[in-house]
Amino acid sequence: MERPVTEADLTFDHVPETDQSFENALAKARDGDRLTVDDAIELFTTGTDGEGIDRKRKDRVLEAADHRRAEQVGEEVTFVANLNNNVTTACNVGCLFCNFKDAAHTFESEAEIETAGFTKTPAESREIVADAVDRGIYEVTSVSGLHPAFALDDEHRDILDDHPNPKAVNYKPPERYDTSPGTYTEQVSAMSVDGVHVHSMTPEEAYHARRGTDWSYEEVYRRLQDAGLDTVPGTAAEILVEEVREVICPGKISTDGWLEAMEAAANVGLGMTATIMYGHVENEAHRAMHLQRIRDLQDRTGNITEFVPLSFIHQNTPLFEHDVVSGGASRHEDELMIAVSRLFLDNIDHIQASWVKYGDEQGLKMLSCGADDYMGTILSEEITKRAGGGYGEFRSFADYVEMISSIGRVPVERSTDYETRRVIDPDEPPFGPRLGPKADGTPLLTTEERDARVTPADD
Ligand SMILES: C[S@@+](CC[C@H](N)C(=O)[O-])C[C@H]1O[C@@H](n2cnc3c(N)ncnc32)[C@H](O)[C@@H]1O
Ligand SMILES: Nc1c(NC[C@H](O)[C@H](O)[C@H](O)CO)[nH]c(=O)[nH]c1=O
Ligand SMILES: N[C@@H](Cc1ccc(O)cc1)C(=O)O
Ligand code: SF4
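A: This is the predicted complex of the input protein with iron/sulfur cluster.
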């Protein structure tokens, strides 16, 4: 049997070496000059002239980024009242950093073992979203595995049903499964409850939604938009450098495919976020190249509202279990990721600190390293939890107001597209969402809290 690849085996063409100096790169960053990939490498490494991260230099990078944040967006820290409603964990793409997925064959009615995963019908999705909308949320984020029975819409289903080689296009009809996810357009329109903002369909999912056809990404995103899609999550980006994708997600769309799908979404008028998933096998050169690809995309589109660094959660993932990596990013690398994103992405206004990835204490620290957005309430979380993350699935408005005020910043409820904002007065409790279609300021309660309030029936 072939020996699996390990950390020591990895050699890359792109390495963190430059002709630039740290001091020069930092001076450019402070002056607001547009940074090059080499500048970013110097900042990420705190200088390629020495080994490891130099704490004093790191602090100077963080300070420059914090300064830029204050200049660019001021003292407000935003967050959104949202729900994560992921439709299915069935997926055969096989990304080695992912433990969200469950092998798609385990969902088949004929399977001998019961699947550990889930699939929701459009009706089930609607009920979950409707309940959250009643509680005041404004947005639903939905990202899913590439279930083989998923089709874009009825026309796509007909094409896939008639396909001469369904296996080659990763298709199996819904009848093969205990539960059918329906079509993407059915799911999107089911989740569009009372005009709630639907944030869904990553480039990887858009790829699945056109497999076996000659449809363009524009065509796919237009149909989804007609069904109620509002904005696109820019995940599936991981590291936008092929030599890294070959190691961590060889089955996934390429860098060019990801950029093509994002550009198409922008062309049909959809807003979007962008991400980087870092802290696995990549080096600082790859991180810098990724940032450049995102900045170029934003120069072309202008549709990216925020950039979300996602720190790799390693514990339960194949990459860790097979010794390809020995852990995730260090705290210093996390802080530099946020700071260099702020300094490099001069055309993206908002940088997110994700409490799912960093926890509260470190998440708050990130708000002084260049970040100005603190994610959302989400109510439910499966991706990080399944990978071994331990920072929970929900933050209330009271949590947000307390945390953001504690560092002297201004808590602001925002819409997903940042068009609407509401400044919250920390002296005026109770704190609840007000921007959602049914938001009247009542605090968002977890299901457990809400159930505990219902007087149990006598028995
Ligand atoms: C789980 S996928 C779901 C959507 C879709 N299947 C796709 O790949 O775009 C969404 C994103 O979660 C992130 N993710 C998955 N596993 C992760 C992990 N262990 N640590 C951090 N982020 C992770 C990746 O960036 C991935 O693109
Ligand atoms: N909506 C956001 C999330 N949601 C959590 C995800 O489901 C997931 O856990 C993970 O982040 C995927 O890597 N997470 C964010 O970091 N930012 C969001 O805006
Ligand atoms: N993929 C993650 C994280 C994420 C989502 C949307 C974003 O805009 C940014 C990040 C999620 O499902 O929630
Ligand atoms: S990251 Fe997305 S595409 Fe990759 S295995 Fe996980 S769910 Fe599937």
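DSSP finds 17 helices and eleven strands in the chain. The first strand starts at residue 76 and ends at 80.
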